[in-house]
Amino acid sequence: MRAAAAVPLPHSSRPRGQGTLPGSKELTPRVVLLGRSIRSGGGGWTLFRVKGGRCGKCAGLGDPGSQRNCETSQGPWRTPSTSCPMTSVCLAWTAGRPSVCCHPQSASMPTICHGLPGMEAWLCCCRPPLRPPTSMRCSAASSVPRTPTSCASMPWLRALPRRSISSSCLAGWGQKTGFLQKEAETVFQLGFRAHTERPREAERVLGIAGTKAFLVYAAGVYSNMGNYKSFGDTKFVPNLPKEKLERVILGSEAAQQHPEEVRSLWQTCRELMFSLEPRLRHLGLGKEGITTYFSGDCTMEDAKLAQDFLDSQNLSAYNTRLFKGVPQDGKPCYEVRLASVLGMEPALHSEMTSKLKSYEFQGSHFQVTRGDYAPILQKVVEHLEKAKAYAANSQQEQMLAQYIESFTQGSIEAHKRGSRFWIQDKGPIVESYIGFIESYRDPFGSRGEFEGFVAMVNKAMSAKFECLVASAEQLLKELPWPPTFEKDKFLAPDFTSLDVLTFSGSGIPAGINIPNYDDLRQTDGFKTVSLGNVLAVAYATQREKLTFLEEEDKDLFIRWKGPSFDVQVGLHELLGHGSGKLFVQDEKGAFNFDQETVINPETGEQIQSWYRSGETWDSKFSTIASSYEECRAESVGLYLCLNPQVLEIFGFEGADAEDVIYVNWLNMVRAGLLALEFYTPEASSWRQAHMQARFVILRVLLEAGEGLVTVTPTTGADGRPDARVRLDRNKIRPVGKPALERFLRKLQVLKSTGDVAGGRALYEGYAAVTDASPECFLTLRDTVLLRKESRKLIVQPNTRLEGSEVQLLEYEASAAGLIRSFSERFPEDGPELEEVLTQLATADARFWKSPSEAPSGQA
Known about the structure:
five-stranded mixed β-sheet, about 40% helix, about 15% strand, six-stranded mixed β-sheet, alpha+beta
């Protein structure tokens, strides 16, 4: 479970029907192209750079020339109270060696670059911004060295398996391309082969604007791990004529060296890459979209049947795909394929061997197999084996061993055991996690996306989170449900602020609360992390780009949005996702609650429903599970941010505390309006879990009445439709808090009792988007689309081993820089991975028919 990095920021408006940006085009006039992209620029390029220098006290970063101690830094922008995260890491692992900042003063600075029209990218380096960014012309970029930063002074790179785990995360990256879109592997490889090899030739064919469009599209594919947005699940296509793109591909150096291979790749994906047929416009099941979690002929009914089967066998769906086969004896046939290194060959003492067989279930044949994505997982396992040699303690060693067992055998139970050791590994300076984690992109909501990360602890912000953890048991008592609906014992987790070095996934969140396994969370606990240098992206809000706010709110919003989001993410992850009990009956018939004494506060009766053995939150609530849980966590954050004790932990008192509360609530209701971008009226469906959750909260607060929240259509200064969101700060406590209290209690009771019917009725009722007055949300959606701004792409560094030293390789914050970072990510086995992707795509191609042959069953 995770917190979204930020709500999409508004962008300069443009007429409906005009392309979103020079680098690509919309699938309809209203859909933004890239998941974390993209802003159209004009009047030259602008580069934002964080100012920084050495702090005289801690060798970290402060204001240049001032030698100001980091502890004394003021203002809403986060400043470490020790040294920069990389220095903190060094100090922790050198046992008192002299503190030397690992970074040259001018290197490794986070930058936001509008270097290409339509592109905004952020360099995800190893520390957060320390001061608000300042603007300068792009020509100033040459003043900052972009040479690799030596990491010789970072012995933690050898003391912990960071590089090997990072390589494991990256090795698994290719797996995601196939799990989501059928043409993604091929598009991915074409980009690897042809994107920058002959830039002058590309510019001759495409022109300057066309070359930029090509680069932006390729960067979007890499950043989203496919040609569907990671935040919204809609397709984006090149803003280039197909014929011109073909000339570039077939005229590339790669095509000259390997003409048959490149031509074959192009022929495979040329039509799919540009196709905007209705079924191919977004991820989904059956007629509603495309996914490779399921074969093309699967419907939602097939997914539900498969989930019931998996529950009956106590098998997790996290690492599976479902393929519908040719009926036998008049009965439907399904293959449940587990991701693993091993195939169907028997393995000694494996807990999975007995599961690999044929089953009869509810009139259907099921065959459980394994070996899906075996070559890629083999690479993951190889790097994890190398990492074992550098484990810092027994927990890490056993954690890695269980991860290897999990990926080798296809065992989620082994991954649970590894996660248990991970939970027990308290306070590491370098944090990592890897596996099939989040289920947001599965249309049914049960299958995980493979991801992994490596990050360093930010000591200063982590200290605040530790104080929040220390207060958690008391704060849990403030939540609006009876104690019997809370866990029997609060298991204090690690809660740290991390600065990401490697995050392998189709998107990077702002915070994470993992593992997602319900049984572990109830009995062993979890870890909570806030990703500080990702959160920093959300701080950079330009006043002139703020939409839907009153003028008098904008300066306050800009000043306090960052600090309020820190508070919200902390509460969301720790006490939102970390709260609440599931009522469970185990396989022996025993209950984890007293059936005689526990009373449902909504009905006044005894508990009538619960989770049975094999059932989980995801399996029971399926398609609404992710969004429902994000809504619950967001609501907890809003509710508990009213507590003065919470705000004191984060350093806010008096008027500042009241401003943080106001901006946190205002940000949420504005996000609820912006969420309409992610609603598809034609299918009456939401495409993004967090944004659906925020819209639901907006509806709840509007329903509270008494002028707490209003959304009013207006006409902007440009003469086009606009809107204003107003929040009466004087009514937050007397009106907003009781409304949220009632809503939160209902959410938790329905979740605890596994009341799927009641939960769906409540949640889908609030999530419905209509044109009913006074808000007229369907009409407002057009206004939101008119004035939207798309999200940012994140450029991540690489590492390279040179002798006994590790080099940190950084790249410019641009589309070309992002592409280069990907092309250099696999220096040793890139060609081998390309070949593997081709083989996997070819082997599975038969499972996806053309759109005209989409299944006729209900989706």
